[in-house]
Amino acid sequence: MKPPILRQLRVWKKPNAGKYDIAGMGVFGSAARDGASAHSDVDVVIRMANPSLLVMVDIKRELEKLSTSRS
Q1: 8 burial via Cβ count (<10 Å: 0-12, 13-18, 19+)
Q2: Of 68, 71, 63, 58, which Cα lies nearest the Cα of 20?
Q3: pLDDT, average across residues 15-44
Q4: pLDDT by residue (tens digit) across 33-43?
Q5: How many Å apart are CA 51 and CA 54, to the nearest integer?
Q6: Strands 43-48 and 22-28
Q7: 18-34: string of b/e by CB count within 10 Å (b at 16+)?
Q8: 50 φ, ψ to 5°?
Q9: How many CB atoms lie within 10 A of CB 57?
Q10: Phi-psi category of 4—alpha, beta or left, where left has phi over 0 and alpha has psi -120 to 50?
Q11: Which single residue of 19, 24, 30, 65 could bond 35 by disulfide (Cβ 3.0 to 4.6 Å)?
């Protein structure tokens, strides 16, 4: 069974992949190993077709909101 945050990331990616030109997305660290605790951070890697620092900041903010909504 996938941890809830992985399901949330998958749901978030569907409408946002085109918006942010996301070519691929994954997790690493304890979330990927299914060893995350309630206090663990979630390490996300995003591959973008046209990387942009401003877009990465927007993505970071959205993902932070997503992660605080699971608390």
Answers
A1: middle
A2: 58
A3: 85
A4: 877 777 778 88
A5: 9
A6: antiparallel
A7: eebebeebebeeebbee
A8: -135, 80
A9: 10
A10: alpha
A11: 30
